[in-house]
Amino acid sequence: MPAQGQHRKPRSLNRLTRVCIVAGTGAAAVAIPLVGVAQSASAAEPAKAPAAATATAHDYTVVRGDTLAKIATTHHVKGGWKALYDANKKAIGANPSLIRPGLHITLDTTPAAAPAAKAPAVKAPAAKAPAKKAAPVKKAAPAAPAAAAKKADTGWTKPVGDAAIGTGYKTGGSMWSSGHHTGVDFLVWSGTPVHSVAAGTVVHAGADGAYGNDVIIKHADGKYTLYGHLTRPVVSVGQTVTEGQEIGISGATGNVTGPHLHFEVRTTPDYGSDIDPVAYLASHGVTV
After folding, report:
1. How many angstroms separate the CA atoms of 166 and 95, rounded?
2. Which domain-ending residue is among 106, 141, 167?
3. Which of 21, 29, 75, 98 lies 20 to 30 Å from 56 when distance is taken between CA atoms?
4. What are the DSSP E strand ranges found in the chain?
């Protein structure tokens, strides 16, 4: 707080003044002494400096190593990290796992009150038109057979249903040792079932460095798909899997700032042989 202004105690000056007032009612004048006290005005008190603006208790600045889950737990955020993300989605962006140091967010997850709905205007009933004679009903022709609703199975599917993509393929940044993102991140919470995009054989299942727990599957076309940052895999090496089979549970293991599924396509089982996973799925009739 800025320092309070210093106050000076004004010095009072008393002056005794003898005043003679002549009062008379037609007789001899009488001199009456009066005592007057003159006091100087107090020195003006200097204006107080305005208080410096301070952050509210609901503001927070992200530091290195923070995750939304960690912030929500430390500051007892109502609704947990999901509510924290909803309250700051505009500032954070589409991917809750990417929060950068220096980002200012609010810890207040209380939803704003919705404006009261206006009562619908009551319209006066319209005057009824005179009834017309009904036209003769024509016999309907038989309907054509309905087209099959289910699309033909291509043998390929999405790894986590209709989840949106946060960080795309080849996104640049110092977060990745290669200088760019080697796959795509599907925005899913921890605990979401993860599925194999096609039939194949499991060649890795378990801890894998920065990928945390992951599963790598080899497919019939010679390509490999990787499913990273899993809470845990539910398949083992050498196991044969089918299209859509659950192979793990999504999470936030490895080098992440929040839960998501890292999906990668490779020409070999090794790091550095990645290709565009969105284009790969599209070549097999799957749009993400």
Report:
1. 5
2. 106
3. 98
4. 18-23, 30-35, 59-61, 104-106, 184-186, 193-195, 200-207, 213-219, 224-233, 240-241, 246-250, 261-266, 274-275
Give the pLDDT score at 185: 94
CATH number at residue 102: 3.10.350
Residue 125 is predicted with a pLDDT of 60
Question: Quick check: is 79 in a domain?
Answer: yes
Q: How many domains does the chain have?
A: 2
213 in a structural domain: yes
* Strand, coil or helix: 211: helix
In a domain, 244, yes or no: yes
**Residue linked to tokens 């999470």:** 251
pLDDT means over runs of 10, the chain (288 residues): 44 40 38 38 42 58 86 86 87 82 87 62 61 58 41 81 89 69 93 97 96 97 97 97 97 92 96 94 94
Looking at the domain assignment, is residue 268 inside a domain?
Answer: yes
Please report the pLDDT score of residue 183 as a whole number: 92
Chosen domain end from 73, 106, 139: 106
- Contact call for residues 202 and 235 (beta carbons, < 8 A): yes
| Cα gap 182→211, rounded to integer Å | 11
- Residue 258, domain extent: 184-283
Cα gap 184→287, rounded to integer Å: 14
Tokens, residue 111: 């939803």
Decide the pairing of beta strands 184-186 and 261-266: antiparallel
